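Section 3.1: Structural characterization of target chains.
Under the original work plan, the team committed to producing a structural model for every single-chain target entering the pipeline before any wet-lab resources were allocated. The record below documents one such target. The sequence was received from the expression subgroup and is listed exactly as submitted; it comprises 79 residues.
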Amino acid sequence: MAPMTAAEIEVLFEELIAHQRRRVFERARRLNPRITADDVLSPIDQPELACDPEWNYEDGLLAGYLSAQMAVRARFRSG
């Protein structure tokens, strides 16, 4: 199997991140149906989110995917 190209890795990260964003938002909406996508970006202002371990876990996975994506992008750009 041939190594993945930078473009293929980018597509993979975009798919992982989109899926995880949906999971984070869906969990937030189960906790509070009035929560918006913008509310999810400031969970400290939403007690339901800030205090829910499952939501924090899912949000942490999203943060990890975003960090990994940035690290891979930086690696490919630096040569």
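The first helix runs from residue 6 to 31.
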